[in-house]
Design goal:
Number of helices: 13
CATH class of the largest domain: Alpha Beta
Order of helices and strands: HEEEEHEEEHHHEHEHEEHEHHHEEHH
Distance between the termini: 83 Å
Radius of gyration: 26 Å
CATH architecture of the largest domain: 3-Layer(aba) Sandwich
Structural class: alpha/beta
Helix content: 25-40%
Oligomer: single chain
Strand content: 25-35%
Length: 388
């Protein structure tokens, strides 16, 4: 009787494997619910899903047949689906260990589906199949961890935000982070960030969400208690003048309206936060003030003036963060209302090495403001501190 490894080896000698799914655990108490193996060209990536987490490992192609057999037998699974370019091989295992192998030819739409699934999953931090309670309550996941079809755009947007965070967090050598989320609102992303840090990155996250709406704060605290998120709390308070109860490592501010973003960035700078992630919203301040004789074309048409003012506002903020010692990037980010792409500011505290870098960043801000006869809240706050 052929073993699992022999069977897979024989298939791989004839066809190229794109994906393997190991499923149907024999007992409800099994640690893993399913195992998904993807061909990553240089190796195969194995994703092992529990109720709440996913664990990854990589295996070379030559070792794949034996590893699949070990995972199937040791974890007590009863089914293996192996996909190639043209076929699906289905191996059903009996309680006695006997194997029944079936082969079927994939239809054209099924080939596309396998390829699309592979492409869309390969970079996602929270993958389909994970048990993330906040995403279930948001309606993004079903109870068994599948993405609701109508919510796939939001699923991608959430992962996009986590990717932007992960680019920095994966390089950190720390087991805990203190985080302030200004203007948290209903806190959908706050809960997702907590899940990502604690369940995926295994970092202890102390997070405080701050908002002005008492009913929202109450519901968020109830949800945190429901999920068992013991170090996630929500408080009623204003961004301006907020006193953090701990040394702040990260500040998140999503869609804080107009100058509220400036006060959040100002607080983050004063706290010497290591990381800042900000999605500004409703940049009205400069739109009301800017004017220019030389560049009147940029302020002549209302819609052009509005968009230019918003872009100029975030350019000023980016430079002022650089002036304050942060390596700053302005990245495209899609918000949850499916509106056009907007900007996310990612700022990471870094030692300034190039001579004159801070002074140049500040001078660029001052020249822009002079040309358009305006000032800006974050600039005013920082300059007041400089004078005092």
């Amino acid at each position: 009787m052929s073993t699992i490894s022999d069977t897979i080896q024989n298939i791989l000698e004839e066809e190229s494997c794109s994906r393997i799914i190991i499923s149907k655990p024999s007992k409800k108490t099994n640690e893993f619910r399913k195992i998904d193996i993807q061909n990553k060209e240089k190796s195969f990536q194995i994703a092992k899903y529990t109720q709440k987490q996913v664990f990854h490992e990589n295996v070379a192609g030559k070792d794949l047949p034996q590893r699949v057999e070990e995972l199937t037998i040791n974890e007590g699974f009863r089914q293996i689906n192996l996909f190639t370019t043209d076929h699906e091989f289905i191996a059903l295992l009996s309680k006695k260990g006997d194997m029944n192998l079936k082969k079927r030819t994939l239809k054209c739409d099924e080939k596309q589906c396998v390829a699309t699934t592979h492409n869309r999953e390969k970079n996602y931090i929270i993958s389909e199949g994970q048990q993330a309670p906040p995403l279930v309550d948001m309606g993004v996941f079903t109870k068994d961890g599948r993405v609701v079809k109508s919510m796939y755009d939001k699923f991608r947007q959430i992962n996009r935000f986590l990717e932007i965070l992960d680019d920095e967090i994966k390089e950190l050598k720390t087991d805990s982070l203190n985080i302030i989320d200004f203007g948290c609102g209903k806190s959908y992303l706050t809960f997702v960030v907590y899940y990502y840090l604690t369940q995926i990155r295994h970092i202890k996250a102390n997070i405080i969400g701050l908002d002005l709406k008492a009913d929202v704060i109450k519901k968020c605290n109830q949800a945190a208690e429901k999920y068992g998120y013991d170090t996630l709390h929500f408080e009623l308070g204003d961004i301006n003048g907020y006193k953090a109860p701990f040394d702040v490592d990260m500040v998140i501010t999503l869609h804080a309206c107009d100058t509220a973003t400036d006060y959040a960035l100002y607080n983050a700078i004063n706290w010497n936060a290591k990381m800042i992630f900000s999605v500004p919203c409703c940049q009205h301040e400069l739109n009301k003030k800017i004017h220019s004789e030389e560049l009147a074309l940029l302020t002549k048409y209302g819609i052009i003036k509005e968009r230019f003012a918003a872009l100029a506002t975030d350019a000023i903020r980016g430079n002022l963060l650089e002036y304050s010692g942060y390596k700053t990037q302005l990245l495209e980010f899609i918000d949850f209302a499916h509106t056009p792409k907007n900007i996310l500011i990612r700022a990471v505290k870094k030692p300034v090495t190039a001579k004159g870098t801070r002074e140049k960043a500040l001078a660029e801000v001052e020249r822009l403001m002079k040309e358009f006869g305006t000032d800006q809240t974050l600039y005013n706050l920082l300059m007041e501190d400089k004078e005092n």
